[in-house]
Structures are given as structure tokens and as C-alpha cells.
């Protein structure tokens, strides 16, 4: 965690606000810290940050200050071009249901964390090694609720913050 960080953030509905975080840290595609205006810890997607304020060299303090947005999914995409997803930490029956939803919703289901993995959906029994490997590769880590929203809308929701820490 570092001192304070100020930036301009545009959320999914187009609202743009200046934010200031204290005790912040970089977590994959997100910046997480105490937002003084909100009075609580919040997490922000880095791809939605339009400007960092009063920072001489943002690359000196963030590994990836301008991460790419997650892909929009579509069941019309060719199977080989669909973003890859893996499910971990679910019962076999629930995993099979989620995998079918993913496949029907435009995602390609894989069985392990690979170099082409885009999303990891984790349940309550998700293994820490698999999560750590996915984090190291810059994978978007979501819980079941965020996954269902992703499949329903085709877009990763703003509040789909890595809950599996």
C-alpha cells in the first residue's frame, strides 16, 4: 500500500469524477484504496481511469496504469475467437451448469489457467495457487454473481471486483 493517489474516473454509465485514494494498492486490473469522499475502501478498474493527477511518472508507481478493458462477449463470435474462462472452487454439478452458461453466452471454457485465459470465475473453494497464477497473468477474476451479469449483458460490470482475495 502506498500514500495517496488522485485520478479522474469514468464509470460504466458515463459519470466522470475525480477520486483520491489513500492507503491504496494495485491489484491486477484494479486500484483499491480508501476513498475519502465515500468514506470507505473502494476498487476501481484501471481501464476506466482517464487521467492520473499530480503524478510525474505513473509507470514508476504502477505496473500497468492503463490496462486494457475486458473483452465484450458475444455468442456470435467464432468459437476459436471467444474469450477463455475457467471455473474453480465449485461443486461438479454447479461447475457444469456455469460452464454451459458460459458456452451459450459466448465464452470458451477451458480447464486450467493458460496464457490465453481472460476470465477466472471462482467459487468458495477456489484454490489459492490457481488464483495466484491467474493474477500473475492479468486474468479478470470474478465471482459467480459477476459472471452471471457478464453473460447476461456481455460486459464485465464495474462492481465485478476481485472478491476472491
UniProtKB/TrEMBL annotation:
Keywords: Ligase. One of its GO terms (molecular function) is ligase activity. Residues 84-148 form the BRCT domain. The keyword rRNA-binding does not apply. The keyword Ligase applies. It comes from the Bacteria. This is DNA ligase. It comes from Paracidovorax wautersii. The lineage of its organism: Bacteria, Pseudomonadati, Pseudomonadota, Betaproteobacteria, Burkholderiales.
Amino acid at each position: 500500500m502506498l500514500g495517496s493517489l488522485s485520478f479522474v474516473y469514468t464509470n460504466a454509465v458515463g459519470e466522470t469524477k475525480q477520486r483520491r485514494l489513500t492507503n491504496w494498492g494495485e491489484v491486477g486490473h484494479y486500484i483499491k484504496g480508501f476513498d475519502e469522499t465515500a468514506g470507505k475502501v473502494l476498487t476501481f478498474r484501471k481501464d476506466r481511469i482517464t487521467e492520473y493527477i499530480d503524478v510525474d511518472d505513473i509507470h514508476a508507481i504502477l505496473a500497468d496504469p492503463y490496462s486494457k478493458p475486458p473483452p465484450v462477449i458475444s455468442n456470435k463470435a467464432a468459437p476459436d475467437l471467444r474469450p477463455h474462462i475457467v471455473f474453480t472452487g465449485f461443486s461438479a454439478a454447479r461447475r457444469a451448469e456455469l460452464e454451459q452458461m458460459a458456452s451459450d453466452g459466448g465464452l470458451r471454457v477451458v480447464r486450467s489457467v493458460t496464457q490465453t485465459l481472460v476470465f477466472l470465475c471462482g467459487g468458495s473453494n477456489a484454490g489459492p495457487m490457481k488464483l495466484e497464477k491467474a493474477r500473475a497473468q492479468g486474468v479478470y477474476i470474478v465471482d459467480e454473481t459477476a459472471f452471471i451479469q457478464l453473460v447476461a449483458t456481455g460486459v464485465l460490470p464495474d462492481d465485478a471486483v476481485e472478491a476472491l482475495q
